[in-house]
Design brief:
The chain has a 3-stranded antiparallel sheet with strand order 1-2-3. It folds into 2 domains: about 15-110, no CATH class; about 130-205, no CATH class. It is about 40% helix and about 15% strand. It has helices at about 15-25, 30-35, 50-60, 70-75, 80, 95-105, 110-125, 195-205; strands at about 130-140, 170-175, 180-190. It is of the alpha+beta class and about 210 residues long.
């Protein structure tokens, strides 16, 4: 009986990349984004969905700057496992920034709702009861250059951090009662009271 002899074997550590791949596919994150966020036809390699998954992966590995993702992809096998057909140099910062612009233009809230609904169905998350709370985030600059009329206002308001000397924004988050799964979240102007956020939260949580 002949024996096959393997002379050269190369091993690479993959860490928990296969687990990430499993949940990314199960949640259909890239698929949902690509079905809803228009892609410039000139982009042939990295879709908005793939770029989003790559950035999420980077955040999990403390890669928080766009320009560092190429290096991360080149020096680890994580993104090779998730997207084996995409070269590491495709994750360049201009391409990732283009995806962020496209997601913003489509509407972050609209996209989050689609992804949340998918995950609720996939994992059977209970939504009969939910919890809501707000917090304030203080800033140390003027922050008075709003890009659009719809932009939230960074301004003075009731500070839950007891920093009345700093401008702030208000962040509201609703989660499921069974696993604290995020159901809806939104940033509000710094002088928004909790009462003013509840009605909008309720309307977005109604099926």
């Amino acid at each position: 009986m002949s024996q096959t002899v393997v002379k050269n074997v190369q091993t690479k550590g993959v860490g928990f990349a296969p687990i990430l791949l499993h949940y990314f596919e199960k949640c259909e994150i890239a698929k949902i984004i690509d079905e809803n966020v228009p892609l410039d036809p000139r982009r042939k390699v990295l879709t908005h969905g793939q770029a989003s998954v790559a950035m999420i992966t980077g955040i999990m590995f403390q890669v928080l700057q766009l320009y560092r993702l190429c290096k991360f992809a080149n020096e680890t096998t994580v993104l090779d496992v998730i997207f084996p057909d995409i070269a590491s140099n495709e994750y360049f910062d201009d391409r990732l920034a283009d995806t962020l612009n496209a997601l913003f233009k489509y509407g972050i809230g609209n996209l989050e709702t689609l992804l949340t609904q998918s995950m609720i169905n996939v994992f059977g998350i209970e939504t009969d009861l939910c919890h809501n709370d707000t917090t304030s985030a203080s800033v140390y600059s003027q922050c008075n250059k709003n890009r659009t009329a719809d932009s939230i206002k960074i301004t003075f308001g009731y500070s839950k951090k007891h920093r009345q000397d700093l401008k702030q924004l208000v962040w509201s988050l609703s989660v499921s009662s069974d696993s604290a799964f995020p159901l809806f979240q939104k940033a509000y102007s710094g002088n928004t009271s909790d009462v003013d956020t509840y009605v909008e939260q309720w309307h977005n949580l109604i099926p």
